[in-house]
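To fix ideas, we quote verbatim a fold written out as tokens:
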Amino acid sequence: MTVQEIWNDALTNIESVMGELNFKTWILPLEPYTIEGDNFVLIAQSDFSKNYLANYKLLLKNAISDAAAKDLSPLFKLKNEIGEYDENGKHEDFRSNNYADSQLLDKYVFSNFVTGSSNQFARAAAEAVVDNPGTTYNPLFLYGESGIGKTHLMHAIGNAISQKYPDKKILYVQSETFTNEMIFAIKSAKSKEFREKYRNLDVLLIDDIQFITGKEGTQEEFFYTFEKLYYSNKQIVITSDVPPDKMTRLEERLKTRFQQGLMADMQTPDYETRVAILEQNSLKSEYNISKEVIEFIAKNISSNIRNLQGALNKTVAHARVFGEDITIDLAKKALKDMIDESNANDITIPSIIDTVAKYYNITTKDIISPTRKSAIAFPRQIAMYICRIKTPFSLPVIGKYFADRDHTTVLYACDKIAKKIKTDKNVEKEVNELIEKLNY
């Protein structure tokens, strides 16, 4: 394996156990350089980050050693410590001016981005941007809560554009990095170099833009960078945890510019997408992970993709350490701090909809759709009935989960299924099987 391949594998494990902000701020900017004896050399951005990274040395050591299949300790160096200077013999503070390093991670591509109803629109928009960068959907603003794949999709855009248009100058950057570089440029009288770096790009991918809120200097600098790129027909892709109108301390002129392109909302993945994500990730494991275990994790870890991947990694690690096969019992033990035992069997309305859809070989989208076809309407009524008897929610609340249906519709469905259970043994059997699955 190359140092880059080792690092890419290590990043996956580090990301799953580390907070998103710390991961993006301290780990992503690191560059793998070489292996020196038992040391895995990583290039840090500054003396400050080099010193701070000592806090993560054990985490990095474990992840790198696991990826390389041998003991390696991280060794942090600056570029000037390994002899990389510019033509004047001076350390190049703005090393991306030559755009040789786009900061793109090649592990994040469209081919391994699992698409479902929660992110289908965002992916379609991203692919349209690749086809016509700078003209279609500019800027593209991707938003949604932490850990749902925004950064993956952003890197996929950059990697695809780089492959399709090799001469384009592309840069991925965290908004915090943009701020830190701006401050450094001001202090070191290098504002001109800083602006040239960002304003001569063909594609700017800026992650977590919400962190510039309340920072007047950063907002002003980014505004003029945005204007220069936009009016030069250069592509801008932005991610955020929230849409522009929810950023209370963001300047109005930036809000309007962010909104003038295309905004794509990315949601928490539904059950089917969670299963697909886990199945894809399980292929990287040396263990044969059964469908039942994957479904157990998908059912109980529904917050975001990062937690989902972390749960799978933790289950595999538990099996490796204790020399056990991966079963549901092992998964329960491995994930006991992620799944509250009292909540492991809690039945929620989304879990009911997921389970019923899977049982009848339809999708959750079908269940909440307006169609009255019996193949869809009957499972929908079953789901409503189970929601009423197995959750504490009122009829109006249940109705809201089924595309805002009126409480009388829910009541009608519940009464209909209750009567069928008394007269039709097959319906009774199906309802009991579904409840058993939900209790599992």
In short: The first helix runs from residue 3 to 17. The mean pLDDT is 86.
